[in-house]
């Protein structure tokens, strides 16, 4: 067990798992078919304290640390088809912490209590249809017009975007200044003219986690909804991305670890040519490789979690953790699917769902190619 998992964190993870088994699994297929999780599920999670567990108690949160976040995000990973882990990671692990870090007291009291209860679902909109991971080159503009900003543009790959009550929107307030002209606006979606939810995107994996396109046509956002200082949004995003990438690293690794456990169990019971699959040397060697990859990666990710909790995690190490853990996840799951044979390609088996859900991890949160560039700059 990781050193940062104490009894309280462990109990929170067990509570989350029981909640997922009770409140999510019965609805699994319907959520997969409709492409989103029911809104009531968010309220139920909020009642149990599973939303924003590391947000200060004065704003309705659990007052914990990133360890409490990770306990909630990783607990249901064997049930990844619920989509809960990813949706809440964006809501609680990313959006809430932007508000907590850069919001005014009025903004924090306005939005965070609702996020902790499930009354407000949060999303963040960075990526644009032709922008990818290049945040400096976004084209969505926000022009000051009296007490409002006039916003025009579009975003894509917005997780939680279908039901989002607030969206942290990355915009250009000074289009000619590159990174120095980026700002963050909080859009309250209900009743805001010019805000439109586009098509729900049909993904390879994470099919019950809604992901949509958004567009903004002369959308008026109150200037009071500016998050932090104008033109400092790029710096804010770079600071928060370290947290996001660490969360992605731990989630990726936890999935890989669970896949190894399930594949070992399967190999020891599956009979092939009159003997357990595990008795074949190739099977043992493949699983030994997977166990070594996950064990060594866990040591590094745990080191990064502990550094983050001590406010010592640097951006390069967070990028290393995200890139390496997601690549280990991909390699391990590929090997595990192969060992399951035909069953590994059937979505009724968790390993197949893990395989499909995992592929996006090397793309979102900053593509791994970008991670390697960031790492190289630190050398």
Written overview of the protein:
The chain has 379 residues and is of the alpha+beta class. Helix content is 49%, strand content 15%. The chain contains eleven helices and nine strands. The protein has a four-stranded antiparallel beta sheet with strand order 2-3-7-6, with helices on one face. A three-stranded mixed beta sheet has the order 1-4-5, with helices on one face. The longest helix has 37 residues, at 233-269. The chain is globular, with a radius of gyration of 21 Å. The two termini are 32 Å apart. Residues 80-85 have low confidence and may be disordered.
The helix tally amounts to: 11
In order across it, which strands form the biggest sheet?
2-3-7-6
Percentage of residues assigned to helices = 40-55%
Overall outline:
globular
The description of the largest β-sheet is: 4 strands, antiparallel
Uncertain segments are 80-85
Kindly estimate the percentage of residues that lie in beta strands according to DSSP.
15-25%
Q: What is the mean pLDDT?
A: 92
Distance between the termini: 32 Å
Structural class: alpha+beta
User: Based on DSSP secondary structure assignment, what is the total number of beta strands?
Assistant: 9
SSE pattern? HHHHHHEEEEEEEHEEHHHH
Radius of gyration from the alpha-carbon trace, in angstroms? 21 Å
């Amino acid at each position: 067990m990781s050193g940062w998992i104490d009894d309280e964190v462990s109990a929170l993870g067990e509570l989350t798992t029981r909640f997922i088994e009770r409140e999510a699994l019965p609805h699994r297929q319907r959520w997969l078919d409709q492409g989103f999780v029911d809104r009531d599920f968010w309220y139920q999670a909020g009642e149990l304290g599973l939303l924003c567990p590391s947000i200060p108690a004065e704003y309705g949160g659990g007052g914990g640390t990133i360890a409490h976040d990770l306990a909630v995000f990783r607990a249901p990973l064997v049930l990844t088809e619920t989509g809960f882990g990813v949706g809440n990671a964006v809501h609680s692990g990313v959006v809430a912490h932007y508000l907590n870090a850069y919001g005014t007291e009025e903004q924090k009291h306005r939005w965070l209590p609702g996020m902790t209860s499930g009354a407000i679902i949060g999303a963040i909109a960075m990526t644009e249809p032709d922008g990818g991971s290049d945040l400096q080159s976004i084209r969505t503009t926000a022009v000051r017009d009296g007490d409002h900003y006039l916003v025009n543009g579009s975003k894509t790959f917005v997780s939680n975007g279908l039901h989002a009550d607030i969206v942290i929107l990355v915009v250009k307030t000074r289009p000619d200044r590159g990174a120095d002209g980026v700002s963050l606006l909080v859009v309250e979606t209900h009743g805001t003219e010019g805000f439109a939810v586009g098509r729900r995107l049909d993904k390879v994996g994470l099919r019950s986690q809604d992901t949509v396109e958004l567009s903004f046509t002369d959308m008026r956002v109150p200037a009071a909804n500016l998050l932090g200082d104008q033109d400092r949004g790029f710096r804010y995003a770079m600071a928060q991305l370290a947290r996001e990438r660490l969360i992605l690293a731990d989630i990726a690794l936890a999935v890989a670890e669970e896949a190894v456990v399930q594949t070992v169990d399967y190999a020891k019971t599956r009979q092939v040519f009159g003997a357990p699959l595990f008795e074949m040397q190739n099977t043992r060697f493949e699983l030994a490789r997977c166990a070594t990859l996950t064990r060594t990666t866990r040591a590094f990710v745990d080191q990064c979690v502990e550094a983050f909790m001590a406010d010592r995690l640097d951006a390069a190490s967070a990028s290393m953790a995200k890139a390496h853990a997601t690549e280990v996840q991909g390699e391990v799951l590929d090997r595990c699917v192969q060992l399951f044979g035909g069953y590994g390609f059937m979505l009724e088996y968790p390993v197949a769902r893990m395989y499909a859900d995992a592929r996006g991890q090397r793309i979102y949160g900053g593509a791994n190619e970008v991670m390697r560039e960031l790492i190289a700059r630190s050398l």
